UniProtKB/TrEMBL annotation:
<keyword id="KW-0812">Transmembrane</keyword>
<keyword id="KW-0472">Membrane</keyword>
<dbReference type="Pfam" id="PF13231">
    <property type="entry name" value="PMT_2"/>
</dbReference>
<dbReference type="InterPro" id="IPR038731">
    <property type="entry name" value="RgtA/B/C-like"/>
</dbReference>
<feature type="transmembrane region" description="Helical">
    <location>
        <begin position="23"/>
        <end position="45"/>
    </location>
</feature>
<dbReference type="GO" id="GO:0009103">
    <property type="term" value="P:lipopolysaccharide biosynthetic process"/>
</dbReference>
<feature type="domain" description="Glycosyltransferase RgtA/B/C/D-like">
    <location>
        <begin position="39"/>
        <end position="166"/>
    </location>
</feature>
<keyword id="KW-0808">Transferase</keyword>
<feature type="transmembrane region" description="Helical">
    <location>
        <begin position="191"/>
        <end position="213"/>
    </location>
</feature>
<feature type="transmembrane region" description="Helical">
    <location>
        <begin position="57"/>
        <end position="75"/>
    </location>
</feature>
<keyword id="KW-1003">Cell membrane</keyword>
<keyword id="KW-0328">Glycosyltransferase</keyword>
<dbReference type="InterPro" id="IPR050297">
    <property type="entry name" value="LipidA_mod_glycosyltrf_83"/>
</dbReference>
<keyword id="KW-1133">Transmembrane helix</keyword>
<dbReference type="GO" id="GO:0005886">
    <property type="term" value="C:plasma membrane"/>
</dbReference>
<dbReference type="GO" id="GO:0016763">
    <property type="term" value="F:pentosyltransferase activity"/>
</dbReference>
<feature type="transmembrane region" description="Helical">
    <location>
        <begin position="81"/>
        <end position="101"/>
    </location>
</feature>
Length: 246
């Protein structure tokens, strides 16, 4: 296990929480200047640092266990999509993957993304295969939570989620008989209003810490985010850095 700048930075944040009572509403910084992840990663490892007396080994082992749990979802997803053999092969390939093994022991905020990714795609599969409505809030919540762990993958999931919702909506509207597209859409909204509200709440609740931080610090996060698009030189520089090193 390597313990470098990022690990020391995170350990110091946790130390200040337990010994100085300094609570946090944002997580590690991203590759974009002034843009921070959410604090869920710190929430996840803070109790483990406390239990382990500040030893980083316990959080590292816990994150490795999360990666191992993702293999179960890989197997189950493969089994449901194709067959038990397909699920077993997928789990074995993932289990012996050098990159998964190597990064599962990495004490850093992107580590839980493998498990979150599998939960995300599993929830989409359950929506497609069985029309199980309860997985919509789960998928929305996972997309929001992913923005607390790793920005590049999370934005990719936001894009995928948007396309999935669009595809699902088009397919659903085509199945409705009679009326124009507009009337069909409003029928869909009325029939699923509660589900839509719950899913939106599940997504938005993950942004509460950043929203509170933003208001407490004179709109700092939003201003930094808008600068990426309003200041041309900043956008070009940060865009190159983001896609080159993320």
């Amino acid at each position: 296990m390597g313990f470098y700048y990022d690990q020391g930075r995170d350990a110091l944040v946790i130390w200040n929480l337990w010994h100085s009572g300094k609570f946090f509403l944002i997580g590690p910084v991203t590759g974009l200047s002034g843009i921070f992840l959410g604090p869920f990663y710190y929430f996840l490892i803070a109790p483990l640092y406390l239990i382990g007396g500040g030893n980083p080994l316990l959080p590292m082992v816990f994150l490795a266990i999360l990666s191992a749990l993702s293999l179960l979802l890989i197997f189950e997803l493969g089994r449901q999509i194709h067959s038990r053999s397909a699920g077993l092969i997928a789990a074995v390939v993932a289990g012996f993957s050098y990159y998964i093994i190597y990064y599962s022991r990495w004490l850093s905020n992107p580590n839980p993304m493998l498990l979150l990714s599998m939960i995300f795609f599993y929830s989409l599969w359950k929506i497609i295969s069985g029309g199980r409505r309860r997985w919509w809030p789960v998928s929305a919540f996972v997309v929001g939570v992913s923005l607390h762990f790793e920005s590049a993958s999370a934005f990719f999931y936001l894009f995928i989620y948007f396309l999935f919702i669009l595809w699902f909506l088009i397919r659903y509207l085509k199945g409705l008989k009679g009326g124009l597209i507009g009337s069909k859409f409003w029928r869909f909204v009325k029939l699923n209003s509660r589900l839509i509200i719950v899913s939106c709440i599940c997504l938005l609740v993950t942004f509460i810490p950043q929203i509170i931080f933003n208001f407490r610090h004179d709109n700092l996060l939003m201003d930094n985010f808008l600068k990426l698009f309003t200041e041309k030189s900043t956008w070009q520089r940060e865009r190159y850095h983001y896609f080159r090193f993320s």
